[in-house]
Amino acid sequence: MVIRSLGLADFRNYPRLELELGEGVHFFYGSNGQGKTNLLEALYLLTHLRSYRTQRLRPLIREESVAAKIKGKVFTRGVDHKVELELFGQAKRVLLDQKPLSLSSEYIQRFFSILFAPDQLSHFKETPAERRSFFDRALCLLEPGYFGRLKEYERIKAQKNQLLRDKKFKELGLWNEFMAQAIPPLVEARQALTGEINQRLEGYFQAFSKAKGPLHLGYKPDLDFLDPQEVSKELQEKRPQEETQGFCGTGPHKDNYLMTMGPKRDRFNFSQGEYRTAFLALLFSLNQIFAERLDYRPLLLLDDLFSELDPEVSRSLVKEIEGLKNQVFITTTEVPHSFADRGIRYRVNQGLVTFAGN
């Protein structure tokens, strides 16, 4: 996947911007607060249709304006596409090849980026829902039918919640049976992806880190059953509790993921440097899975990549990035010396982006 061009209008601190982009590694460099991260956010929006920094649209629109626009020419799976996102106060409109997007599934199965950013890292570390969303988004591209199965589960859960709120308990049995059929395929897909990641995770972590102890990704399903009958039995046992609570408290929407390094658990025991390095190992593992299974190279968006990493880890990252076939975008205050004259460079200063060589 390659972004051939990026255009912005009244997005964040950019009144207007037109960039022609190439393959390989790109650096957006300059002092802090100039708009480097805003560029990565725009690229993320082009590939995920949402920001990783805010759920609200208003902060994305320049203060003096009532709307913003992001457009890009995107090459993926052998086809060039034109994408436009129009952001209004409370709404957005997506045009794919000059036609309004009707189904989000059409979009998310074509475009994908892998992000490393301080904001996202904090959310991933603290919020189980963010971790589920991260792996589900990858599975929507990796597993045919996963998006549909996930949406069907969400539909069933929403109906069940409505019944619980309305105290229509007699109808719960039927919807529990629907849920019992919907849950196992989701759990099985999440387990399989976790296993694939763990086959690669330790190798990347050892390459990037001086930490001792094997790194492992754990998946903790709320219902650890692959047999619908067993799921149905468990849901029946939880039914009195859910009737009292008034909401659906059991199912894949309660699943969790965690990383461990020997006896250390990520959220509680990893140092900040260990967590950053472990998360980078996770991202590179996922990127390798996309390449091997789909012959697909997602966009890599790496914000403030080299801060708080020691020189040895930075050199290992540089070596790994140089060997990738992905299009890569890195923000940094200074381009590392280890990249020498490699990569395409843009200087960012107060919302102005200037080509600085390659």
UniProtKB/TrEMBL annotation:
InterPro entries: DNA-binding_RecF, P-loop_NTPase, RecF/RecN/SMC_N, RecF_2. It comes from the Bacteria. Its main location: cytoplasm. GO terms for cellular component: cytoplasm. Keywords: ATP-binding, Cytoplasm, DNA damage, DNA repair, DNA replication, DNA-binding, Nucleotide-binding, SOS response. The keyword Transcription does not apply. Residues 3-334 form the RecF/RecN/SMC N-terminal domain. It is found in: Cytoplasm. The keyword DNA-binding applies. ATP binds at residues 30-37. One of its GO terms (molecular function) is single-stranded DNA binding. It holds the Pfam family SMC_N. GO terms for biological process: DNA replication; DNA synthesis involved in DNA repair; double-strand break repair; SOS response. PANTHER family: DNA REPLICATION AND REPAIR PROTEIN RECF. The RecF protein is involved in DNA metabolism; it is required for DNA replication and normal SOS inducibility. RecF binds preferentially to single-stranded, linear DNA. It also seems to bind ATP. Belongs to the RecF family. This is DNA replication and repair protein RecF. It comes from Candidatus Lambdaproteobacteria bacterium RIFOXYD2_FULL_56_26.
